[in-house]
Amino acid sequence: MTADPYNIIITGVGGQGNVLASRVLGNMLVRQGYEVTIGETFGATQRGGSVMSHLRIAKEGVWSPQIPRSRAHMIVSLEPAEAVRVLKDYGNEDVRILSNTRPVYPVSVIAGDVVYPPVEEIRSGVQALVPGARFIDATEEALKMGNPILSNIIMLGALSGFTPLPIRRSDFKAVISRFTPGDALDMNLRAFDKGRELMKKGKSKSVKRKQKSHGGKI
Amino acid sequence: MTAGAKKRKEAPRLLMGNEAIARGALEAGIQIASGYPGTPSSEIIENLSRSAAERNIYVEWSTNEKVATEVAAAASFAGLRALCVMKQNGVNVASDFLLHLAHSGTRGGMVLVSCDDPGALSSVNEGDSRPFARILEVPLLEPGDFQEAKDMTKWAFELSEEIRNFVFLRSVTRMSHASGSVIIGDLPAETRRPAFRHKGSLLDPDNGPVISLFPGIPELKHGPQQEKLRRAADIFEKSPFNTYQGPEKPELLIVTSSACSLYSREAVHLLGLKDRVGILKMGTTWPLPPELVKRHLAGTDRILFVEEVMPFLEENVKILAAEAATDLGIKYFYGKKSGHIPSVGELNPDLVLSALRKILNLPSEKDPSDFLKKAESIAASAAPHRELTFCPGCPHRASYWSIHNAIELDGREGFVCGDIGCYTLGFLPCGFGTLKTIHSMGSGTGIAGGFGQIRRFAMNQPILAVCGDSTFFHAAIPALINAVHHRSPITVIVLDNRGTAMTGFQPHPGLAVSAMGEQAVDIDMAEICRALGARVEIRDPFDLEETQRTLNLMMEEAGGAQVLILRQACGLSPEKKGKKLFEVKVDESVCVGENCGCNRLCTRIFRCPGLLWDGQKKTARIDEVICAGCGVCAGICPSGAITKREAQA
Ligand code: SF4
Ligand code: SF4
Q1: What is the pTM of this model?
Q2: Distance (Å, whole) CA B473 – CA B36
Q3: Is B78 in the pocket of ligand 1 (CB under 6 A)?
Q4: What residues make up the domain containing B609?
Q5: What is the CATH classification number for the domain harbouring A199?
Q6: Would you list the DSSP string of B385-411?
Q7: What is the separation, in whole angstroms, between the first and last Cα of chain A?
Q8: Would you tell me which of A146, B36, B108, B375 could form a disulfide with B80, CB atoms 3.0–4.6 Å apart?
Q9: CA–CA separation, B175 vs B197, rounded Å?
Q10: DSSP state, B516?
C-alpha cells in the first residue's frame, strides 16, 4: 500500500449499487488484514442524487468517515459525470480514476435545462488532467450479461488490476456469497472476471465511438 | 479503545454503526425492541428483526415513536431489557411520554437510541436530540467509533439498571451509516422471565405501581430522579468512554464527541499537532462528569468545541468553567459561538482544519492548485447538478401529475399541504411544485384542516393535503378526526404505496405483516375514514384520467373532510423491484418533440428519469437501463407516440 490510510471513493447515482460495492470491497480488504472505515450517504440522496462512499484502508485505526478534501488516492465512478464531480473536491496530482462510461442523465438534463456533454468530452477532459484515468463500458457489458445492475461488480473486478491494494478473486467470492443470494454467485463472479478482462484488454474501444450529446438546446 | 474490546482474540468484523448498536443490544440480552422507521436509524430495528427468531426476541415497528417508547417501557416495567429506536424527529413525538417515564423510572434496562441527521442529509430539518437529555434529566451517551457503538449500547443497559432510569444513546448519520471494525462479544445464554410487580406501596420502586408523579408533591419522584442523574455523573467520572489524547498541558484542548471526534483526530494528524493539541473525546455527554472536565480545563487556557449540531458541549462545559472560575481562572473558548465552527450543517475534517489554523495562527491554506482549478473548470460543464427526483416508475410522480392538473383545471388557486416521506419531494419540479407547506409527520392534514376553517372568511381556494400510508397511521388520524369533526372542507389524499418506502419499505399497520415477518392484522384505512364519516374514494394513480376526474369532482363538492386514497405500490417495493410491467417505446415517427403540447411535455414537464431527449433526432426515447416499465408516460404523450405493451414474464 502506497499510503496509510489509502483513500478510495466509490461514486455514482442512487440505485447503481454504490453501497453494495463499497461494502463488498471493504470486507474483501478486511480479509487481507486491513482496518477499514467506510463513510456513506444514502437516504434522500438516493432519489436521483449523487451518492458517494468513502473508504479508508489502514493498517490500523478508525479514520474519519469523510475523506478530507483533495486527499483521495483512487476514485471509482459508476457514472462519468460523477467522476468529475468527485475529482474537483477530492482529486490531486496523484489520484487514479476508474470510471464507467454510461451516463445517468440528471432530470434537469432530460428536461433540457442543462446540457450533459458527450462522454468523449468528459473522458478527454479527465485524461488531460489525470493521464492514467481509465474508462470502461461496464454498463454495456452488464447489459450483455442480462442485468445492468452488475456494472458495479464489473467495476470492482476492473479495480483489481488498477490499485496497489490486494484485491483478490477468492476474497470477492467469499464476501459476495454473504451479500447476495446463492444463485446470483455465478453471475457475480462472471461480472467480476469481466471487469478484470476489460482492464487487461487495455484501452476500452467503445469510448472512441461517437457519443451523442443529450439535452442540448441546439 | 473501550474496556473488554481488545481482550478477545476474535477477528474484527466490518459493521455499520447501526449494526454495531443492534449487536450491543443483543449482547446485553434485550428481549424487546421497538421503533419507528426514520433515516438514519432504520437499520437497527431491521437488523434485530432478522435475529428475532434465532434470539427469541420480540421486535416491532410501532405506529409512531411515542407508542414505540411505551411498548419498550412496558417490557422494562416487567423487568426485561428493552431497546427503543428512532430518528431525532421521533424524540419530539415521544417526548411527552418520555418526560413522564423519566419521573417514574424504569426497572429492566431500557435504552432509547436517537439517530440524528446533522446536515439534514435525509431529513427536513437538522435537529439535535441531545438537549432532550437535559430536559428529560436522563444520562446521555455518544459513541465515538464503531466498537464503542456496540460496547456502549451494551453498557447502557447496565447503567440503566444501576440508576433505574432509561438511558439516552445518540448517534449521527456518519456513525450510523458508516462502517468500521468491531470485535464482537458473546450473546447471553439466559433470558429473563417477565413479571410486573405492582402490589407494593406507591413509593416502592421495585414492587409498587409505576407512576410518574404525585400531584402537588414533586419531590417524591422528581427528587429521586435527580439523585439518579448525580449517580450517573459519578459513574461517568471513571468511564472508559471518555478518552484523552495529547500532551499533558496542551496549547489547545479540543472537546468533542461522536463522529466529530474522528474529524478532530484527522485534522490534528494532518497538521502534525499531536504534541500541541489535546483531544478530550467525551462519550458521556450528559451530565458531564464535572471533576474530569475541570481537570482537563486546568491544563490549558484555550478550548475548542467540535460538535454537531447545537453548542451542547460548549454551553455545558462553559457552565462548569464558570462554576470553577475561582480555581481555573480565565479561559478562551472557541466553537460555534465564536464562529470558528459553523453553527449550521454537518462538520468534516476540513472545517476542523480551518478552525485549528485560525486559532493557532498557522499559515492559511494554499491557494487551490492548478490541478484543482482545472478540475473545477471541467466540472463546471461536465458535472451538471443532480436535483432530487422520484424513482422511475414511482406512483407519486403520477399522483402529483393528476393533482397538479386537477388544481390547474379547477382554476381557483387550490393548494396542497405536504407531509413527510418520499412524496415530500413534491415541492420540487419532480412533483410539479405541488406542495406548498411541509413540516412534521401528520402536519399536512392538520394544517389543511386549519385552512379549511378560514374559508368561512370568504377564502375560495380549494384545500388539499397529502400524506403517505405510514404517515396516515403515525400522526394524520387525529388531524383527520379534527377536520371531520369540525366539518373542515378539505380533501386529504393518501398516497398509499403499500409500505414505508422512504426508509426501505418497512411494514406499517395497514399491512398484514409485522417487522418479524409474522402475520399481523391489516387495518383498512378506508374503513377508518368511512367510520369517521368522511367520504372516501380509492383510485389507481396510474389511471391518470380517472384520478384527475375524481379529484376535480371532490374539489367541487367539498362540504366536509373527504379522503382520496391513491393506491399503487412503490416502484422499489419487493413485488415490483426489477420487474417491468410494460415494454415502453417511443415511436420516433410520431413524436413531435419540441412542437408537442407545451414543448416536449414528457421530458421537459413530466420528467421521469426513464425518458431521454435525443438532441440530434429531436425526439424522446426510453432509457432501457433506467425505465421501470410502469407505462404511465404512455398516457402523458398527447400525440400517442409513447406506446406500452405488456412485458413478457
Ligand atoms: S422509493 Fe418508492 S415511493 Fe420513494 S421515490 Fe422511489 S418509487 Fe417513489
Ligand atoms: S414507463 Fe415511462 S413513466 Fe414509467 S418508468 Fe418508464 S419512462 Fe418512466
Answers
A1: 0.94
A2: 11
A3: no
A4: 582-646
A5: 3.40.920.10
A6: -----PPTT-HHHHHHHHHHHHHHHH-
A7: 48
A8: B108
A9: 38
A10: T
Provide the pairing of β-strand B13-16 with A134-136.
Answer: unpaired
Ligand nearest to the backbone CA of B468: 1
Angle of helix B370-382 relative to helix A80-90, nearest 10 degrees, comes to: 150
Place of cell 407508542: B67
Grid cell in block for residue B482:
379534527
Q: Residue B282 maps to which CATH number?
A: 3.40.50.920
Let me know if residue A43 belongs to a domain: yes
Beta-carbon count within 10 A of B407 CB: 23
Return the DSSP state at B602: I
User: Alpha-carbon distance B413 to B427, whole Å?
Assistant: 16
Q: Which of A49, A62, A84 shows the shortest C-beta gap to B262? A: A62
pLDDT in tens, A81-108: 999 999 999 999 999 999 999 999 998 8
Q: Is the C-beta atom of B501 inside 6 A of ligand 1?
A: yes
Helix (H), strand (E), coil (C) string for B247-309 = CCCCCEEEEECCHHHHHHHHHHHHCCCCCCEEEEECCEEECCCHHHHHHHHHCCCEEEEECCC
What whole-number distance in Å separates Cα of residue B121 and Cα of residue A50? 12
Number of domains in chain B: 4
Tell me which residue of B395, B394, B399 sits closest to B551, measured CA to CA: B399
B115 with B204, same domain: the answer is: yes
Question: Which residue is listed with cell 451518492?
Answer: A51
What are A8's strand-pairing partners? A55, A74
Which residues touch B126 (CB under 8 Å, ≥6 apart)? Answer: B116, B117, B118, B119, B120, B309, B344, B345, B346
Best to test chain A binding among B117, B184, B376, B378 (most A CBs inside 10 Å): B378
Q: Domain containing B507 — which CATH number?
A: 3.40.50.970
User: What is the total count of domains within chain A?
Assistant: 1
Number of residues in chain A: 218
Distance from the Cα of B263 to chain A's closest Cα (Å) equals 5
Residue B492, in any domain of the structure? yes
Cβ separation of B382 and A121 shorter than 8 Å? yes
| Whole-number Cα distances in Å, B4 to B151, B240, B241, B447 | 8, 10, 12, 52
The whole domain housing A32 covers 6-213
Q: Give the list of residues 6+ apart from residue B608 with CB closer than 8 angstroms, or none.
A: B392, B393, B397, B602, B627, B632, B633
The rounded distance, in Å, linking the Cα atoms of A168 and A182 is 20
Q: What residues pair up with B254 in beta bridges, in sequence order? A: B279, B304
CA dist A121 and B427 (Å) reads: 34
Q: 10-residue block means of pLDDT along chain B (649 residues)?
A: 48 95 98 96 96 96 98 98 97 97 96 96 92 97 98 98 98 97 96 96 92 84 93 98 98 98 98 98 98 97 97 98 95 98 97 97 83 92 90 95 97 97 94 97 97 94 96 97 97 94 88 94 97 97 97 91 96 84 92 81 91 87 91 92 87
Q: Is B609's CB within 8 Å of A216's CB?
A: no
Distance (Å, rounded) from C-alpha B582 to C-alpha B567? 19
User: Any chain B CB within 8 A of the CB of A124?
Assistant: no
User: Is residue A90 a part of any domain in this protein?
Assistant: yes
SS3 A32: coil
- The answer on B537 and B467 residing in a single domain is yes
Same domain, B360 and B426: no
Taking CA atoms, B372 is separated from A3, B386, B422, B493, in Å, by: 21, 21, 36, 49
Q: Which helix (H) or strand (E) holds B140?
A: strand B140-141
Among the three residues B307, B335, B369, which one is the final residue of a domain in this structure?
Answer: B369
Q: Kindly give the distance from the C-alpha atom of residue B513 to the centroid of ligand 2, in angstroms, as a whole number.
A: 30
